[in-house]
Amino acid sequence: MKATFAAAVMLVCMVAGCGKKEQPPADAKSTNAAVGNPLTAPVDYVGAVGRAQRVSERVADTASLKRAIQMFHASEDRYPKDLNELLTSGHMPVLPRPPYGTKFQYNSANGEVKVVPAQ
Known about the structure:
- This protein has helices at 2-16, 41-76, 84-88; strands at residues 102-107, 112-117.
- It is mainly alpha-helical and 119 residues long.
């Protein structure tokens, strides 16, 4: 009788895992797999699409500005004094609008342009 009781206790420990709890990975909150509420999934998706669109606009607008600055530098052998000089020189028809809540920061010494938060 003792042997069957001991075997039953061992079986229960093996099935239950002997109380050992598995810890989630430390970076689980940073992955999309950890966000799992099916009720908010559509809202989460729309938010992610909006963030991705803002990032892609920022990258594309910055790339077009950098390309125009490089073309200006190649033709004039200097960087433009400001971004508006790209318009007057004909290197860009219109300056792109920075994403909402941001602005373009231009350094005329080295021709570098960045998107920074507007203040």
